[in-house]
Amino acid sequence: MINVAIVGYGNLGRGVERSLKQNPDMELVGVFTRRSPETVATEGAAAFHMDDLLSKKADIDVCILCGGSATDLPVQTPEITKNFNTIDSFDTHAKIPEHFAKVDQAAKANQTVSIISTGWDPGLFSLNRLYAQSILPTGETNTFWGKGVSQGHSDALRRIAGVADATQYTIPNNEVIENLKAGEKLELTTRDKHFRECFVVLEEGADAEAIKEEIVTMPNYFSDYDTEVNFVSQEELNRDHKAMPHGGTVLHTGTTGEITNQVIEYTLQLESNPEFTASVLVAYARACVRLAKEEQFGAFTVLDIAPKYLSPLDDATLRKE
Ligand code: NDP
Q1: Ligand 1 atom 35: the closest Cα is on which residue?
Q2: Pocket (CB within 6 angstroms of ligand 1)
Q3: What number does the ligand 1 atom closest to the CA of 40 have?
Q4: What does the CA dihedral 88, 90, 93, 99 come to, rounded to 10 degrees?
Q5: How big is the CA angle at 97 (ends 107 and 299), to the nearest 5 degrees?
Q6: Beta strands 246-256 and 260-270: pairing type?
Q7: Alpha-carbon gap, residue 56 to 62, rounded angstroms
Q8: How far apart are CA 174 and CA 222, in angstroms?
Q9: What is the 3-state secondary structure (H, E, C) of 63-111?
Q10: What distance lies between CA 258 and its chain's CA centroid?
Q11: Are the C-beta atoms of 288 and 87 separated by less than 8 Å?
C-alpha cells in the first residue's frame, strides 16, 4: 500500500482525493493545509494543519503537492522535498529549469525523490512532443489548446475595473489542424492557431464598449488573438460557464523518405482539467515511491520516468498483457 498525503486543498487537491478512491494500491493519510483544517471541506479525508506534516513523516510515502504554481510550489516543493518524496504540477514553463535545480538539490541532499511539472502541459504533452520529434526528426510540431477555460486569462478579465466576474475559453482553429493533417506546410502566427472567447459580467454602470476595447487590446493576453467578448448576467455565467473543461492536441506532421506524409496526433478532451491533472499526479506518485525504493534520489520530470513505473501491475504482467 502506498500512503499519500495531499498538501494544499484547492481544485487539484480535491481531484487527488477523488482519484485516490479509484486506485486501490494507494491510501490517503490526510489533507494538509495552511488554513484552519476545520474550515476546509474535504470529501471525507482527515484534514490537518501544515505544521503537523512533519510529525506524520513515518506514515507518509509520498506528498502530492497541490499548491499554485505562481507562489506556492516554488517555495513548498524544495522545502517539503527535504523530508518527503514529492510530486508537483509546476506549470510556469520558463521557470522549470530553475525549479528543477532547487528541488534536485534538496532531494539529493536528503535522499528523497521528487517528480516535478507532472500534469498534461507540462506533462503528458511534453512526453508526446518528445516521442514525435524523436521519431520524425524532420517534422513540425504544433500544440493546440482547448476548447478550455484559461484560468490566467479569466483572472486577467476579472482584474479590469468594471468587471464583476468572467470566464475565458481558448478555442483551437480546427481548420488549421485539418490542413496540417492533410500535409499542408503552413507558416502559422499566434492569431492563426487559437481564438479567445470571453463571457463577462459587468458591474452596475460599467461602460461595456470601453471594457470590450480594453479586453481586445490587452497586450500578452488578447491583442495577438481574434477575441470575442460576450456580456452576460451573473446567473448565466454561473449556470453555463463555471465548469473547468480543457484539453488540446499535440500534432506532429513529418515525412519519411522524400514525400511520405506521417501524422502523429495526441488529443485530450477533459471535462475537468483539475480532476484529470490530479489523476496524472497520482500515477506519477506511484512512480515516485518506486524510484525511492530503488534509491534513485533526486528530481525528475515525466521525461525521465519509464512508463512501467506508472502502472500498479508488475513488469512480468505488463509484458504478458
Ligand atoms: P487553487 O487555487 O484551487 O489551489 C491552490 C492552493 O490555494 C491550494 O493548494 C490551497 O492551499 C489554496 N486554496 C484553495 N482554495 C482556497 C480557498 N478557498 N481559500 C484560501 N486558499 C485556498 O489551484 P488549483 O488547484 O486549481 O491549481 C493548482 C495548480 O495546478 C495551478 O497553479 C497550476 O499551476 C497547476 N496545474 C497544472 C497543470 C498541468 O498540466 N501541469 C494543469 C492544471 C493545473 P491551502 O490548502 O494550503 O490553503
Answers
A1: 89
A2: 8-13, 33-35, 66-69, 72, 89, 91, 119-123, 273-274, 277
A3: 46
A4: -80
A5: 20
A6: antiparallel
A7: 11
A8: 19
A9: EEECCCCCCCHHHHHHHHHCCCCEECCCCCHHHHHHHHHHHHHHHHHHC
A10: 38
A11: yes
144: which 3 cell numbers? 493546440
Q: What is the pLDDT of residues 65-116, one digit of tens each?
A: 999 998 999 999 999 999 999 999 999 999 999 999 999 999 999 999 999 9
- The grid coordinates of residue 102 equal 532547487
Residues in the chain, overall count: 321
How far apart are alpha carbons 114 and 100 in whole angstroms? 9
The Cβ of residue 204 has, within 10 Å, a number of other Cβ atoms equal to 6
DSSP 8-state code for residue 307: G
The H-or-E segment that residue 190 falls in is helix 190-193
pTM, rounded to two decimals = 0.95
d(CA 181, CA 62): 41
133 sits in the region (left: phi over 0; alpha: psi -120 to 50; else beta) called alpha
Contact call for residues 1 and 26 (beta carbons, < 8 A): yes
Nearest ligand 1 atom to the CA of 66 is 9
ipTM of the complex model: 0.98
pLDDT of residue 152: 87
Compute the C-alpha angle 38/41/43, nearest 5°: 125
Q: Which of 182-186, 258-262, 314-318 has the highest mean pLDDT?
A: 314-318
Cell readout for 127 is 512526453
3-class SS of residue 35: coil
C-alpha torsion angle, residues 106, 109, 111, 116 (rounded to 10) = 20
Contact 73, 90 (CB under 8 A): yes
Where do we find the cell 500512503? 3
Which one, of 90, 251, 280, lies nearest residue 184 by Cα? Answer: 251
